[in-house]
């Protein structure tokens, strides 16, 4: 068993823990946090539900990335990662990152319109920059996977 295959199990355990934490956050933490925000800042009360919806859907995007990663880990474990099927899961990750980035952008615009560049707006700007970097990194990794898949297909054809 290779070192990479030995790491699949612990990584899956971490993914389960993160997924459970995200679900708990969606169900318990976010509704309470946005309710408190509406109580503490009545001028932002109108943003409670739109921001809650954006946050919940954003976390669904992260959960989608976890599911796609789980499927890719299965392909790594079974030594089937260099296939067109793997590219479909990577495309799912790219799509989820893109949707999440657009949602964060929408939240940023809503907050800047409501209170200017104070409060959470600078943090959301940082998340936008990091999200753009992550999205571009995944696109580059997808291109590398595509090249490796083509090389493996060519090599299998020669053998």
Automatic annotation (TrEMBL):
Keywords: Membrane, Transmembrane, Transmembrane helix. The keyword Membrane applies. The chain crosses the membrane at residues 12-35, 47-74, 86-114, 120-145. The keyword Membrane applies. InterPro entries: DUF2975. It holds the Pfam family DUF2975. This is DUF2975 domain-containing protein. It comes from Isoptericola peretonis. The lineage of its organism: Bacteria, Bacillati, Actinomycetota, Actinomycetes, Micrococcales.
């Amino acid at each position: 068993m290779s070192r990479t295959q030995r790491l699949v199990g612990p990584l899956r355990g971490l993914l389960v823990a993160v997924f459970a934490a995200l679900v708990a956050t969606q169900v318990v933490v976010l509704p309470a946090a946005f309710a408190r925000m509406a109580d503490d800042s009545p001028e932002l009360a109108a943003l409670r539900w739109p921001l809650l919806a954006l946050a919940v859907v954003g976390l669904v995007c992260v959960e989608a990335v976890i599911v796609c990663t789980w499927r890719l880990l299965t392909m790594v474990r079974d030594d089937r990662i260099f296939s067109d099927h793997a590219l479909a899961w990577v495309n799912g990750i790219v799509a989820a990152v893109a949707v999440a980035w657009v949602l964060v952008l929408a939240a940023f615009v809503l907050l800047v319109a409501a209170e200017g560049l104070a409060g959470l707006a600078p943090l959301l700007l940082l998340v936008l920059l990091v999200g753009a970097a992550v999205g571009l990194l995944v696109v580059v990794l997808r291109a590398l996977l595509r090249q490796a898949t083509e090389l493996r297909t060519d090599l299998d054809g020669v053998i």
